[in-house]
Amino acid sequence: MVAPRLGARGARAASAMMRGALRLPAPLLRPLAGPPVRTDDGRELPVSSRVVMRLIQRSMPTGLHDLVRLRTDSERGGPILAGNEGRDLWITDLTVPGAEGPLRARLYEPPAGREPGPLLVFFHGGGWILGGVESHEPVCRFLAARSNVRVLSAEYRLAPEHGFPAQSDDALAVFRHVTGNPARFGAAPGRIAVGGDSAGGNLAAAVAHDALRTGSAPPAWILLIYPATDLLGEYASRTAYGKGFVIDTETWTGPEGLITSLVPYGEDPRLSVIRDPDVAGLPPTYIATGGLDPLRDEGEAYAERLRTAGVDVTLRRFDLLFHGFASFACVERHCRAALAEVAREVRRAMAATAPAAGQAATGPADDTEVAV
């Protein structure tokens, strides 16, 4: 079943209903949440978070035959999940040059001040096969509103229709265009960061690696939210959380999996960035992982690889969260608390790129802290 298309008012109403439902007392939510889920140290995942995890898992494709439906649903679901978040932002739809043609992009600008400032170029997740500016409306709105930093959400060609390295080629083309034309995006030269979630985190890292190899303009900072860093590696978290925790490992990487077309390139450091032989000199990097995410260990192994090479790395594991939590930050309080922490880090890091003291940005008040 394809989700119905809703106008802006309908999307806001649906978002409000979802937020209200997820705030219901735990006994009322338990029938939707499924059996209890516990972390390695025995802590139980909150009931509202379990509902969200099951929602994400049920929206995942079971095979490439699902792709058209899932792409449509993810595009229509993004505005619903975003709701009223960032309603004061200036939002502009753009096209930017990819490696082989124009691509969609969306610029989110905080309303206070129009002078050039920091910019985060953000690439969406979706396993290189799903997603776009609509699906990641909630993540990008949230980050822009809470960090007071401009965010440019950029698309790229998707597999399997477009084989590797089309995805990384497009990401490189977009980032090089932005750094070559900062005024178009309200960005100050030297204050342009790159980031992404999941497969988008992979692309963000690949952009930074390319700048290191080629000597092109590097990002000022890197944000990686539960990134994919090693397509072929074997990690304990993939075994522990590879079934029933959003990403079904066999469905994605098995012999007839969703990303089978990418597997032959798994040794390529543009795809498995942890396999790049030279990472020394990368910009400061922030990596967020989820304690219940199959990709947890490869993200943390990548952080350790960078740290060993002398890179300034901050690693934050959100023990009680799972793959995809950032997309639900506007509707569920534990996801919101985690992404609010990430947004504070964006604000702090990008203020540190200012050319002179006294230019640090300020943003709206933080949410009440909850355990994540």
From TrEMBL:
A GO term, aspect molecular function: hydrolase activity
InterPro entries in UniProt: AB_hydrolase_3, AB_hydrolase_fold, GDXG_lipolytic_enzyme
Protein name according to UniProt: Alpha/beta hydrolase
Membrane recorded as keyword: no
Hydrolase keyword on record: yes
UniProt entry keywords in alphabetical sequence: Hydrolase
Transmembrane segments: none
Domain Alpha/beta hydrolase fold-3 intervals: 120-326
